[in-house]
Amino acid sequence: MSNDLENQLRLARSRAERLKTARDQAEILLEQKSRELYVLNQQLEQAQKGLEDEVKQATYELSVSNQRLQKTLNERLRFIGQMSHEVRTPLNAITGLSELLLKTALSSTQYDYADTINSAARSLIVLLNDMLDITKIEAGKLVLHPVDVDAVRIHRNLVSMFQLEADEKNIELVLELDSSLPSFVRLDKGRYRQILNNLVSNAIKNTDSGSVKIIVLFVPDESNPNTGELRVKVVDTGVGIPEEQIEKIFNAYEQLGNPQCGLGLGLAICSQLCALMQGGIRCHSELGRGSVFEVWLPTEISTSQLVEARASATTIARDTAYKPRILVAEDNPINQKVLSAQLAQLGQEADMVENGAEALQRLQSQDYDLVLMDIIMPVMDGEQAIRAIREGDARIASHYCVALTASNYQDQKQRLLALGFDGFLGKPLSLNELATTLAQVPLRQGAVVPNDDEQPSSFDSSYFQAQFGDIWETVFVDIAETFLNHTESSLVALQSAIDAGQTDSISKIGHSLKGAAASMGEGPLSTLFEKIEREPESIQLTDWQDEVLAKWAAVSSAIRQELTRIANKQQASG
Q: Which domains does the chain have, with CATH numbers?
């Protein structure tokens, strides 16, 4: 018994020692693992802190890089903007004076030379605009201005603009407007037209035979039928694009094919404009078979029946008969000369000053119906001047002021109007744009339109004197009223024929108007009507309205003044 008890005690003590040894080893191992875990935690905390420091450093470096990049882009934008402004000054002279030269009596060779100069200058303007646009997009400075757009009219006008170019290459230019297309949609009209102009121009340029087709449709949003996508396809049967080159065509400065066709900015601008408008553009092409460019842009249907304001013939006639008092603030002598010549072509003249301070001095002592104000001038620029004018007394502040600037139209117009300008004209300035602006000038309060008998007649009677000698006044009186009535009614009929797309009627009416104007010795007006007769398919209201109506307003006003003069003369002598 005692031996068994001793054995059991021995075993118990041995088990207790093993347990104690195991517990001691476990405690040692736990302490070791705890120290290791502590060290790992310390290392993890240090690594996390290091990572946070690296992220902060990388974020800081990225921010600095972005600031430097933005500064570089802004500096490039300022440089190109300034360069654009400086280049536009001589271009303004080239386009303005060549445009006036084309309206004078020229031989066919002289006309061709002047037209080539004018066309080349306008090509340079397009290049300048492209460079400025791509730089503004890259710098994030381009702002969109959505407006209500007549969806049918904008596409028909597009076709009209390119019809002559297509006819010269014997290419069929087709417009297909789907029945889904709403009457009015909201878009940035200028930028949308810029996209389509580029695509159609490229399609015609790269197509030697066959057709260029423009397909337009509207896909409504299932959740909101008043919103959706405007989709346009420009399909040509031209040279096509190699498959490996398609991705490159939307990159800036990638010029495929003829390297003399430009800098390759057009499609890059189209792509970035589509992206800014929350849409997109893609191309499918087969070498030798043609290309399809597809544009899709989100838009909404406009419920307002917005119709763009146009200057009516009566408004232009009023402005031609009543010579508004015009003040021009322009420091560049070339631009002064061009603007003076353009105003003279429209039967107007102006007082010239060289900066905003001189303009303010004139306005303090004289009243003007129109102030044309350049933006960049020494002493006091246009922006400073318009602020001073609007902050002046009621008489000075009420002047109708129009900004003249070589800066980009889309980006500057809204800002300048917000500063207080009543209107906006971009350089180089076309004669039609200037005529439209003059037509929109309101009469200042208290202004009186002179009666016809208070004005000397501006009618050129040399044709009648050469044809009919001493009895020219009698012949003139006999046919003048008939000519006026015939032309007025024919212009109304011409507009109706254009709206209905009746090319035969357009040509016949143009022929009749041409002959009537020639019989009155009105050669320039007869030439305008001859163009309508020869090119009835390409004539749209926007093409002929400004130039023809402005010219007709001047002619009809001069004829009526001459009729009044002759009547007064006969009354005084009889």
A: 147-300 (3.30.565.10), 313-445 (3.40.50.2300), 462-573 (1.20.120)
